[in-house]
Write a structure and sequence with these properties.
The protein is mostly helical. It has 2 domains: about 60 residues; about 30 residues. It is built from 2 helices and no strands. The radius of gyration is 30 Å and the shape is elongated. The protein starts with a helix and ends with a helix.
């Protein structure tokens, strides 16, 4: 009978340890989820900043007088790319 009592006590201790470990893991999981959320938000902000800088660079390049043929071709390619993207978006909107 004493052996069964000891085994039950050991099982109870192991269950208590597992519960504590689970609680620690849940806290760690919450911390990591918040950290991931913060990192994703920072990434979005950086991407917005990068996009803004790209636009500023393009505007500065457009404002520059005396374009070379290569610059004109690059600008034409970008405009054509934007037009294709706009057309694709319009096509999606019309299908809905």
């Amino acid at each position: 009978m004493e052996a069964i009592h000891q085994q039950l006590e050991q099982i109870q201790q192991q269950v208590t340890k597992l519960i504590r470990l689970q609680q620690q893991l849940q806290k760690e999981n919450q911390r990591l989820r918040k950290q991931l959320s913060d990192a994703e938000l920072a990434k979005e902000n950086q991407e917005k900043g990068l996009q803004s800088l790209k636009q500023q660079l393009e505007q500065a390049q457009l404002a520059k007088a005396g374009w070379s043929e290569d610059e004109k071709k690059q600008l034409e390619k970008k405009i054509n790319q934007y037009l294709k993207e706009i057309d694709a978006c319009l096509a999606i909107l019309h299908t809905n």
